[in-house]
Specification:
- Keywords: Metal-binding.
- The chain has one domain.
- About 40% of the residues lie in helices and about 15% in strands.
- The chain is built from 6 helices and 6 strands; from the N terminus they run ββααβαβαααββ.
- The C terminus is likely disordered.
- By secondary structure, it is α+β, with helices and mostly antiparallel strands.
- The strands form 3 sheets. Strands 1-2 form a two-stranded antiparallel ribbon. A two-stranded parallel sheet has the order 3-4. Strands 5-6 form a two-stranded antiparallel sheet.
- The chain starts with 5 loop residues before the first strand and ends with a strand.
């Protein structure tokens, strides 16, 4: 945690294919600040998305939900447990499980991205200006050489296409 780091932000489809890898951003910027800066400075979301597209985010994005909704996204985030309440309602719990299940795709992508030693370990400072290019090339390679996973509503029918 005491090392200088950079972060990237990934935009993925629900089937695990990456649309883009944006960044690098300073490591001290949280996900909400990064998203806010992307929405203000970068119009790429307008090319990729239409009004009403669903943005599945984790709780780190809670400060930027209004901005995402102003840009036409239908934002879905796991529910918070209100004070003095011991459990979520059935509807909130099911919604949270569905969101978490879809967030797994993002976490799996980041795990595959970090399998590449260039992006998972220390790099020389001279490489930092090119880190965006390295991340995008790695993202393209991950998209090209992967086995897509298709899910149905019935877990017993989950299959991986060879």
């Amino acid at each position: 945690k005491k090392r200088h780091l950079v972060k990237t932000l990934s935009v993925l489809f629900p089937d695990g294919y990456a649309v883009d890898c944006l960044g690098p951003f300073p490591a001290n910027a949280n996900d909400a600040k990064i998203t806010e800066s992307i929405l203000q400075l970068n119009n790429t979301f307008q090319y990729w998305c239409e009004d009403g597209d669903v943005a599945i985010v984790d709780r780190a994005f809670r400060d930027v939900i209004e901005s995402l909704e102003e840009n036409g996204f239908d934002v879905r985030m796991p529910s918070f447990l209100p004070p003095k309440q011991k459990q979520l309602t059935t509807k909130e719990a099911n919604s949270t499980r569905l969101i978490t299940k879809n967030r797994w795709v993002v976490e799996a992508y980041h795990a595959r991205l970090k399998d590449w030693s260039l992006l998972s370990e220390r790099i020389h400072n001279s490489l930092i200006p090119n880190i965006h290019d390295y991340a995008r090339i790695t993202t393209a390679a991950l998209n090209a050489f992967r086995k897509p996973i298709f899910f149905t509503d019935d877990p017993s029918e989950h299959q991986q296409i060879a």
